[in-house]
Amino acid sequence: MGRKTAKNRDRLAGESGAVIKKHRNRITVALVYPNTYHIGMSNLGFLTVYRLINRLDQVVCERAFLPDGDSETDREIRTVESGKALGTFDIVAFSLSFENDYPAILTVLEKAGLPLESNARGTPHPLVVAGGVACFLNPEPIAPFIDCFLLGEAEINLPLFLETYDPTADRPASLTQIARHVPGAYVPAFYTPSYKANGTLQDRAVLPGIPTTVRPPRFPDLAAEPAFNSIIAADTTFDNTYLVEVARGCPHGCRFCSAGFVYRPPRFQSIETLKGCLAEAAKRTSKVGLVGTAIADLPGLHELCRLAGEKNLQVSFSSLRADALDAELIDTLRSSRVKTATIAPDAGSERMRRIINKGISEPEILTATEALVTGGIPNLKLYFMVGLPWETAADVEAIVGLTKKIKARFLAASRSRKKIGTITVSINAFVPKPFTPFQWCPMEDRRTLKNKIKTLRKALQKIPNVRVQAENLRWSYIQALFARGDRRVAALLKSAHANGGNWAQTFKETDQDPDFYITRTRETSENLPWEFIDHGLKRAFLVSEHRRAREAKTTPACTLENCHLCGIC
C-alpha cells in the first residue's frame, strides 16, 4: 500500500490526526502494526499508543503497516506520514495484540533491512521495542528478536520509557537504565533460561541489578486518559467509526479468557467521560463503536445509548453477553441498523459451561435469541469452542442440540415478523492461554479437533438456514505454539520465516517437537515460561480454579471490591 493511499484513507480528527512533526532533536518512533492498514487502523490499542506518543513534545511517532500486496513498490515498508524507511528511526515499536502476528515481526524487520535477532543489532540500528496484550501474556517465543518489551498498560510505562531512553547513549547502558527504572520493562538479553533434562524450564539467570520478576503496571483511572481513535479512517474493519474504550477487563471470570484475569479487577470508564466522547464523535462521523470485554456491565450504558440516539449516532458493541440483552439494548442495535447479533454460548452443554465458568444458562441463551429476532435483528451468529478441557463426545453433540433449540426459537420469532434470517455457527478450537486456570491444560491434537469439526459441520448443515464457519486449525495450532512456548520456539519461527511461512516444512526439518508445547498436559508444579511476569494473581488461586473447573464447579463473578481471592486487590 502506498503512503499516499493510506493518507487518503485518513480523515484527520481534532487539530492533527496523522501527525507530522519536524525530526530535529527529537526521538523518532516508527509505530508498526504487523498487519495491513485495513486491520491496523481498526485497532484501538494501536491508535491510542500513536496518540499518546505524539502528545509528548520530545517525540515524533509515525505509523507503518504491512503492504496490502506484493508489488515491487511495496517491498520496503515506509511510514504513512513522511514515507521514511523504518531503519532511519530511533525506535521501531511493534503493537502486538495477537500471537498470530508474531511471524510478521520478522517480515517487517527483513523489509526494513534490519538484522532479525537483537544480538546482531547495534549502532546505528533502531531500538526494537514491542508492547500489547500478547506480549504481557508470553513474550518468550519472540524474545530473541526484541530489544525491549514494555509489558503492561501504555498510559504508565510509555512516557517513562521515552523519558529514560537516550538514543545517543551506549545501547546496553541505556537498556540497563530502562530495565531498572521503567515499570514493566523487560529486556530479554538480561535473562538467560535453563532447562531440565525433560525439556521443562529449570531457572532464569538474571544479570545483577535487574529485577528477577517484571510487574506490568496498571492504569488505575480510565477517566484520566480515555482511549479513543484520533483518526477516523475509511476502508477499515470499522469503517468511518469513532472507537472508544468503555471497559478494561471483565468480572465474569470465564476460565479460558486471559483478559478476565490479567486485567483484574475490571475498570469502567466514567459515564461523564463517555458522554464527552459521544459529543466529539458526533462532530466527525455518524458511527461510534463501544470497545471492551464487559460492555453490558458498564454503569449507565442505557443512558449512553439514549444519548447516542439523540445525536443520531449508530452504535456498535465489540461484545454483549446473552444474559445482558434487554429491550433497550436490542432497540439500540436495531436503530443502528445492525443486521447480525452475536451470541457466544462457547459450549453446548450446561456441564461444559460450568467447567469454563461461562455463567450463562440455556434458558438465557434461548430468551436472548427470541428477544433479538423479535426486536428486529434478523440474523444471528453463534460462537462455540471444541477441544475444551474435560470435554466429552456428549458435550460436542450438545452443540448440535443447542443450535436446534436456538433455531426453533429463532424460527418462531422470525415467522411473527414474516421474515426469516440466517444463523451462522462459528466453531473455534480451544487454545490454552497463560495466566488462566487452563494454562496447564493441553490443546487437543489436530486430528481429533478435525474430526469433531467434521462431525459438527455434517450435522449442522442439515439444519435449514444454518451456515457453518470453522477456524483454520493450522493457525490455531501455531497460535498455541506461540501462546505456550518458551524462548526456544524462536528458532522455529525463524526457520518458518526462512521457509516463506511454510510451517509444515519447518516442522519436518526441525528436531524440536512442537507438541511438547501444544498438546502436552503440564503439572501445576511446573515452572512455566511466562511466570517471571507478575500480574498480581495468586498462583494458588489459578490452581484452585483449575481444580474447580475439573469438578465442574462455578465461581462467582469478581465483585469489583477489595477481596482476597485472586490476590490482586
Structure characterization notes:
47% of the residues are buried. Helix 8 (271-284) runs parallel beside helix 9 (301-310) and helix 9 (301-310) runs parallel beside helix 10. This protein folds into two domains: 3-206, 3-Layer(aba) Sandwich (Rossmann fold), CATH 3.40.50; 240-484 and 536-550, tm_1862 like domain (pyruvate-formate lyase- activating enzyme, Alpha-Beta Horseshoe), CATH 3.80.30.20. The strands form six sheets. It has a six-stranded mixed β-sheet, with helices on one face. A four-stranded parallel β-sheet has the order 16-17-18-19, covered by helices on one side. A three-stranded parallel β-sheet has the order 11-14-15. The protein has helices spanning 3-9, 37-40, 44-54, 102-111, 154-164, 171-181, 259-262, 271-284, 301-310, 327-335, 350-355, 362-374, 393-417, 446-460, 473-484, 489-498, 503-509, 515-518, 539-550, and strands at residues 10-12, 27-33, 59-65, 91-95, 127-131, 148-150, 185-186, 191-195, 201-206, 231-233, 241-245, 247-248, 267-268, 287-291, 314-317, 340-346, 379-386, 423-429, 466-470. The protein is built from 19 helices and 19 strands. By secondary structure, it is of the alpha/beta class.
